[in-house]
Amino acid sequence: MRRAAVAGLSGLAAAGWLGCGSARQPVVPADCVADPGAIASALTQAPRPVTLPGGTPLSSCARDASGAADLQNLGVVMVAVAEDLGSQVPGSDRAALELGYLVGTMRRGMAGDNGVHAELERRLEQAMPEGVAASRRAAYERGLRAGAGAG
Fold first, then answer.
1. Residue 18 Cα distances to 13, 50, 67, 150, angstroms
2. 9, 42, 103, 125: most buried by Cβ count inside 10 Å?
3. What is the secondary structure of 17-53 as a DSSP string?
4. Tell me, what's the pLDDT at 151?
């Protein structure tokens, strides 16, 4: 009897383990994490909808990042792009618009999620320098709206 119970529990555990692996999790497209330069180049499409070279909408990068490793990889790339744009914002309305778009589209992709996604959003938002000219702030806000709406 005991041997049968152990075998039965082992079978249930194996079935449960197999069942856990059968649910397909979204996969972050490779072009979302491959090259910050490609993402920066794609952002020149803003305020129109931005798609990456492989055809991936930028907002889907955040939406499809479900695991810790996905978020870490995505965060490294997106924060690098945001920091580079942020360093250009004091002299460029265009950089402000693109940074705003990046933040807006990432927010859109992460909508309804908290936790680690919120930390990534915070890091992206911090790339916008304080005390910039009103025109830069307005360009950033235009980018935010465009990214949140069409990202």
1. 9, 38, 19, 38
2. 103
3. HHHHHHSPPP---HHHHS-HHHHHHHGGGTTSPPB-T
4. 57
CA distances, 43 to each of 103, 119, 139 (Å):
11, 22, 14
Percent of the chain that is helix, strand, coil (3-state, to 5): 75, 0, 25
Report domain extents, the chain. 26-150
Q: Structure tokens of 99?
A: 């940074």
Query: Tokens 């690098």 correspond to what residue?
Result: 80
Amino acid at 97: L
**Cα separation, 125 vs 122, whole angstroms:** 5
Per-residue tens of pLDDT for the chain, all 151 residues = 434 433 433 333 333 333 444 455 668 889 999 899 999 999 999 999 999 998 999 988 888 877 788 888 999 999 999 999 999 999 999 999 999 999 999 988 887 666 667 888 899 999 999 988 999 999 999 999 999 997 5
The count of residues in the chain is 151
Q: Which tokens is 151 given?
A: 């990202």
Q: Which two tokens stand for residue 126?
A: 């911090």
Residue 38, φ and ψ in degrees, nearest 5: -65, -35
